Fold each of these.
Amino acid sequence: MKKSNTNILKNKVSAFFVKLPESHAFRSIMASVISIVIGLVFGFFLLLILKPDRAGWGIYRILFGITDIRRFARMLYFAAPILMTGLAVGVAFKTGLFNIGASGQYTLGSFFALYTAMIWQWPWYLAILAAMAGGAIWGALPGLFKAFFNVHEVISSIMFNWIGMYLVNLLSINTPAMLDRLVGNRTMILVNANPSAVIPKWGLDVAFQSNFMNIAIFLAIIYAVIMYIVLNRTTFGYELKACGFNRHASQNAGINAKRNIIVAMVISGALAGVGGGLYYLSGIGQYLVERSLLMAGFNGIPVALLGASNPIGIIFSALFISYLQVGGDSLQPVFAKETIDVIISVIIYMSALSLIVKTVIASILKRGSIKKHAKEEKQ
Amino acid sequence: MSDYVVEMLHITKDFPGVKANDDITLQLKKGEIHALLGENGAGKSTLMSVLFGLYQPDGGHIKIRAKEVKINNPNDANALGIGMVHQHFKLVEVFTVLDNIILGAEPAKAGFIQRSDAKKRLEKISKQYGLRVEPDALIEDISVGMQQRVEILKMLYRENEILIFDEPTAVLTPQEIEELMVIMRNFAKEGKSILFITHKLNEIMAVADRCTVLRKGCLVGTVEVKNITKEQLSKMMVGRDINFTVKKKQIGKGNKILEVKHLTIASRLHKNNAVKDVSFDVYGGEIVCIAGIDGNGQTELGYGIIGLEKAASGDIVFKGKTITKSAIKKRETEGLSHIPEDRHKYGLILDYSLEENLVLARYRQKDFQKGGFIRFKNIRTYAKKLIENYDIRCGQGAVTKVRSMSGGNQQKAIVAREIDKQPDLLLAVQPTRGLDVGAIEYIHERLVEVRDSGRAVLLISLELDEVMNVPDRILVMYEGEIVAELTPEQTTVEEMGLYMSGVKRQPRFRKATEGLR
């Protein structure tokens, strides 16, 4: 009796492992993992070329650079905004759109959050809603152009990145009440302007012994879970994905494809805007009036790719990329900061090729099973 | 034995999970027309790909003119004198006829193409076989029938002796088909050997000497065509008896369901209108068929009725309400249903599962959603019901990715979805395109069921068999206009061909422009 039970269990377990490689999720995850491993191996060679004697130490620091809880808090802090921009890009991908304008939407979101927090003295949760609205407006514009004039969203959203940045610079410079009086080219420290606008820490800063720690990362994760539900459980998500997969068939089924393009871009922009809100309302970063686009927006693209545009996957990929970034930063000054950027780029490049990696996995598995089959037949 | 030019002996070809060809032997005599018959997925294309060097067989061997050969690629096949006219022509649209014919075998001196030599040779060949072409015309400017001639001349220019025709009649008018048959017979008389891939039995009966039948990757047999009937052939192909005539109930004409009034639709391809001042009615309890050669405005007419294309002028009245400007969603909730011509582009979302596709136009209904949240359980039950009732074959049931299903079953899924909506008007555009006899019979039965229940079917079709058998009325379209209204029982394929090719026009359908002047 007992024996047969264990046998059944054994069969079940082995059936699980046989089925596992065939499942879609498993292949997606494997593709991401393999991309990461290839990127790290490449990184190791890069470090070997740069400083052979310190390469081993370097790769160790990248992998295990987060040694204490304070660094861990930093990782969570940097993960929150890229999680949001990753979601923004991922949701657009699901609808068949490439929102490369997350940076502009992030910038607008940041400005709306800071302006309402500092000038109107809004509390943090309202300021985040303002950030959402700012990003949504900036996402809606390329969406409208795409739906009504068939202007490709990549072109228009790139342009809106620059328009957004200069617009925010212009508005910031002309709102002296927002600016740091000493330096002048950046917004003032948030806590001095409006303490209620700083995202609460709920004692986490004490637990993690770090000023970087607050509830932003949890808010971001909640957004991801909501997006997961919207995409996979609602008719609305069903329509969005249908449009992404096949616009013609969706139209034929009576789905309003134009409306969906606009709505998808509004949601995408809103998510990126929240990213900006979460970052600046943490009270550490100050908006710098500079002539370069904010990278957090672009980092959303690799986060989305590595997470296969799945909101849950994006949570992990955002944490992972942030992990590498924070761990890699500790390579300084032995290695240049750019070194870690190169390694991350390779991982991202590989993840963009994850479709190819996936096919390779599939063909290897198939070959394996055919061989096994042949063996069994011989026996 | 040496009178065989091609011998494919015991050819076996495995693909993971399927035996595409299982011990198939096909022998082609010199100077014969040999038909290769089989349903979709019977292994015809695989077998021809093996002969053409695109696949290597896993078992068996090929002999050409009694000598065993190994064909590694299409170039080898060409060198052995094997030429092929593909179903979808492989021509460069922006090149001239002459350039297409010499492509890959350009006569050159010091790197310069000797066009005048080539042209002389082409003219000689085209005179010899009576294949008239315009050497300097661009491919994109000539008709489909003419393009096929170019493909045939390409083989002749290369002095191929073994000619493979892959479903050559699919795109031709009845008259053009007749011409092609004559040309094929001439080739055979000349001593060329012809392999003719088709699933149209009439053509085999008309032109072939022998016929090899495949079913599910296996050889059913090779028969002399003169000793066999059409019914026997179809039974060999499908493995059971097939009804060629569609049985319809006697049922009176119902209410007027659809009224198209002076509808004009602009073309996306050229500056002229695709649909010009078209008017007709469809009543409940009847199947009306729009017949015509591909590209005469039928597609656009269908798009106009469903709402994928805007009307430039005119009106569409559905159940007494004007829907000319209504959104697609509105038309569908009012009771209009659509089986689209291009099932991959308009009919299905290939990356969605079968159940998600089966509710594609219905997910908004109360049964399938509550407060915007999808009711997966109900969808699953509904999908299971449709899969069973409509006999949709799918590997993993309701969750099968539609991309992995066969074409016939994909089409069944669309038919199930659209008919189960209980529409007042079913617009079926080319519903049996590319399907095998069994599936065609099945879909025709379903269309007739809709008709017999007193609802209306508007069928748009290019298949003559379908046009002659299924509908109660036929409207023939030529260059965007309706030129004739016919009753299938009182017309012949030949007569219809004259209307389809614009030679004849019924007096009541005067040219629109004449009417204006």
Amino acid sequence: MIVELFVGLKIPDTTALTTKQTLESMNLHVKNLQRYDYYAFEIRGDQKQFEKKIASVDVIVNANKNIALFSLQQKGIKVLVKNLDGHSESLLYTLTERLEIKGIVKVTRGVVWVMDCSKEMAVEATTLLLYNPNFQEYQLL
Amino acid sequence: MKAAVILFPGMNCENETMRALTVSGFHIELVRWNQHVNLDDFSCFVIPGGFSYEDRIRAGVIAAKHPLLDEIKKQSKKGKPVIGICNGAQVLVESGLVPGFSSSAQMGLAPNKNPEVNGYYSTWVKIRPAQQKKNAFNRLFTENDVIDIPVAHGEGRFATKEDNEKIKNLIAFQYCDYHRAIDQSFPTNPNGSLLNIAGITNEAGNVLAIMPHPERASFDKQTQAYGFIPKGLLFFKSMKEYIKEEL
């Protein structure tokens, strides 16, 4: 079973702001742009229990500045950018060995960009700025 | 001979880079991203290391989209040398200036693949000039040179979707072992870089993206604690020779 986790910021997201400004300088006028760290956990066991546990792991979610969501309902075009070898052995090790969270088989990481604009513009923004095809891939969610 | 050291916000290696350039015989000027300067006044351009725009999105990509890079591209077309060191290399690769087959990025500097350290990795490595025709940066090195030089990066693994054969001819410097052998495994290759690439040029050989830091291996005081001979100035002096001979 796969559990997806989207981690956003409660505080101003300077990366999203810089990205929006850069897109504007490239004549791509996105009305609103949000960014979420993306995690996909392949797990064995109870999904609800796992979600409760993982949302309180501070190496992933710092409650002082982050919000954790298990689905994204935000308005806009959602683009997931991942490295081609996007699974994270080191995070898996930290979670399973150091923090002793049981039942995780694999962790994949990426970034989800939520753009308030047309699909065509979102794809253009992605191909021109948000991903590098030489070591990354993207998909529209 | 005047060299421009290009500074984007977040870069932090400009002082040692300027020192190495000065000792190599250049008059230098620091050109900040928000200054209006006529780049025709300069013979060459150096983009130093650091963390431009805090590595937001991907290392180097925001600076790569800055209009100043378009100006540097124009200057490079005149044959003037451009060297990007570490973060500067990431900027040049993201801008498409290296390898320069088209205007979009044909390579990437992916996160390191290192069996011992996850993320940022800092150490001394050995590199050698690749068996390539003379370019603007290798002319004072000999075929047998092994260069001791530091690396310090989290995203330094050269990767490409292009044909490796096309890339091979552009490799300027490769990670090697003590005997100049190209061993693709760690620690000889510190980041899993394709074909052990440490530095790669454009087809004309006047634009170099290099991940190790020559400016940190330029003086005895930087290398003597490790017992290495400083060879970093040869990169900049080669550039000077190239300008004298070719421009």
Amino acid sequence: MQYVIRRLGHAVVVIFGAVSLMFVILRLVPGDPAIVYAGPSATPEQIDVVRGELGLDQPLYVQYVSFLGDLVRGDLGESLRLGGSAVSAVADRLPATGLLALSAMGLAVLLSFPLGIAAARRARTAVDYSISTFSLLGQSLPNFWLGLVAILVFSRALGLTPSSGWGTWQHLILPAIVLSLPLLGVLVRLVRAGLIEVMGEPYILTARSKGLTGRVILYRHAMKNMLIPVITVAGLQLGQLLSGTVIVEVVFAWPGVGRLLIDAISNRDFAVVQAVVMLAAFTFVMLNLIVDLLYGYLDPRVRLEAK
Amino acid sequence: MIDTTIDTATVPSRPRRGGRVAHLRLYLSAGIIAMFVLVAVLGPVFYEFDPVTTDVAARLLPPLSSVDGTSYPLGTDPLGRDLLGQIIYGARISLGVAAGTVLGGLVVGAVIGIISGYFGGRLDSFIMRLADIQLAVPPILLAILMVAVLGPGIQTLIVALAITRWVFFARVSRSSVLVARERPFVEAARVSGLSHRQIMMSHIARFTVSPLLVVATMQIGLVILAEAALSFLGLGASAQEPSWGLIIANGRGVLLEAWWISTLPGVALSLLVVSVAVFGDELRDRLQPDLRLDD
């Protein structure tokens, strides 16, 4: 319980800090923020109204306090381009991004085990080298380029999938695969290395000397201990996955939060930009917190160490 | 029954390759990187290309075309600009941004990390908490936010990316310092009356060199990718600067009629990034086999 409270406290501090960091960056706007927020076509009167609304005529610390106050009330301002609040603009796009991110994550976790196990069992053979090469490529190839090549090959040349947009489950296939590759690459390496390490542990020898079959040892004894690092790393890599959605959504015209962010930047719709980045930071910190707690629950040693 | 025997006596948990394969990987990747550097530095001298002039008559020519005595080995883009020339200039931008960013992030991060690790205590916890906070915003998003606020362009991009990088250098140099600080000769140096500054400069700093080198190599790959991605999104290089990411974005509108514009710069980008990743991997195996880079 003490562990939970400590982690929770840490998460609160980090979110508070991240929010403050964002306040600083948004105030770095060269020139008058009111002009930027009001948009390029605003009249001087409109700019004055915006300045009053944003409290930009107040001293900086007053702005900061009211910024925090708005945040606690969930008020992140109005979208200039879309009308309505920035928060609801983001909320509308959230399901599409959630679907994409969770599909990619699920795909990566599900595929990483068979591939990692195959590589570990045939370590230093052609199978191992091809799987390792695949995981290296998955981790380092640029996803926006991979997405375009996938469109050319699978949609254009083979006609297997729709090239972009959304609506049916077929639309999800290409973006989810492209988004999952970097995470898959990381996890395959992890499962491979972890399995080889675990198989050297004394308790595996014990199990083997008890006469248990390879299958039982692998799935009952070794896998249980593999789950912990895989869950941890999958959780920690979620930030990467979130950044990846921005690019994948643009490439495949997927109507999620990432595309909203890029559209908002080109329209200089700062309230929406701010809302998206806040949401990303919040999600990321929460996920880290969940991973930490889960880790402490699965592996009691962590809780003791943290004291 | 399936065979699950894994011979743990001979297989190390890290995929360390046999001597010959490792050598090949190291030299091959180093060779490819050197080639890119050479093209970036000397390419524009030998291959005449003007990134600004457009030629509508020569638009969307496929690779291996030749018009009026001018040959276009890799074809042209929608504005009739030579693709090979753009890719050669793109290498300059890609490597230039990577070098500037990583150098900036490394210097700032290493100084902060060494000071933080050496003095420890409150200063150390404060700095490390700051690093946690910054990492709460995924680096690419932080860079996007800064570019969105400051406006696009190569210089902004370098600054924004460098700010997202210092954390990684600070963390790795700090952890090396924590180990080095406990060595007897540091105690001896302190007793013999050297100032903190002297101890850090002449006794501590060199312990951070090899881990920093490994991290820097890995970061170069990530920064090249980040630059290309941001330019692809229209948040990096301006229209007169043919960054690979920007060329790929330019080809998107005509992807189905002119496949070469988006795909070929990506081949250059992928080759470079993969080579840097392999080189970094081999470097780590040689210099810092225990270095953890996940956190």
Amino acid sequence: MAATLKLEIVTPDAIVYSKDVQMVTLPAIEGQIGILPRHVPVLTRLVPGEIIVRTNEEKEFLAIGEGLVEITGERVAIVTDMAVAAKDIDEARAEEARQRAAARLRDKISDEEVATVNASLARSLAQLRVKRRHRGA
Amino acid sequence: MASARDIRRRIRSIGNTAQITRAMQMVAASKMRKAQEAAIQVRPFVQLLYRIQRKATTRPIDFKHPLLEVRAVRKRAVILVASDKGLCGALNSNLFRLVAEYDPQSTVFITAGRKAAQFVARTRRQLVADFPYGDTPRFAESRAIAALARDLFLKREVDEVRVVATRFVNTLVQQPLMLEFLPVGDIRGVEVPGAPPPEALAADRTEVLFEPNAEDIIGYLLGHYLNIFIHLVLLNAKASEQSARMVSMKGATDNAVEMIGHLTLEYNKLRQGRITQELLEIAGGQAE
């Protein structure tokens, strides 16, 4: 029995994912990183993008927002503001959210708000990218 | 001795009161369910973030983040989180009793909720800012509070920030608490369920890699951590407030119903006495 990683993805609303997996690919701030069991302990930031989870039987895809990840030899713990499995992404709603955010950015708004809107724009873009890539799946 | 009419009037008026308190109880109960769910849902997130925070900030690293700096306390800020409305039992007065321990000269207040601001104004303490928060506290509201506290601390206007708020335990128990907010350290005085105890974390000396570097990660982490901390406090305060209100309104309704029972008994006795007397008078009249 090969070693496994315990992957946990937690958002403020729920525990989105909690399973033993073979490998995880994450969109870290310095580029995509693949994590296998017995990885050295790392703390790093995540940018909005796609997580690829490989378990024995299958591959799963999730879109995530920005966040932090704690990696140790036997677990990967992710705190993020958003995480949605590819099959649950509602493309129409994500597209709508993207357009809303883009429209909001064109208006005159404060710096604080720009940051918020940019974050939500990045979240919807991440969802759309993941969904469009796996449309067939 | 009250006349039968007086008693009848009182019964009716108490009945009206009971109706109102019952309605308020129902409203609080439904809001309570929502607020409790929200307060419970956010828990795993906070546990994990807290663990990462401890892990990141207890490593021996050759860099000091300004938010971690421990200074001699000359001036402190207290974030006081109370409710907007009353009629929630001893919830707010319990909080204010905790606050009364702070020296009014060297303490400034940041308040959330109308009752908190009123208390600070009434007791002539120093108020820096007052924030509103809604029935379902939004993250933006928490962030505004955290940002202000952080600025005060970074500008060295205060040397310590504490939070006084109510922790939601369950529907019947709400616990007024004082928590240390800044400088960032351990959460003392309250157990974070699911998080390993501080000793275990301190003992864990595994080397951790920071990508790209410790400064960047810790800066990002602490910002998030502070926002979430306040968010959790607000969610707890809201759940506590609604629970306390529901319980105290239920108490009021029960008391009213009991009182109506007593008054009805008294009224019936009075009526019976009068009927008996009238009968005696009629019987007496016939006998003559």
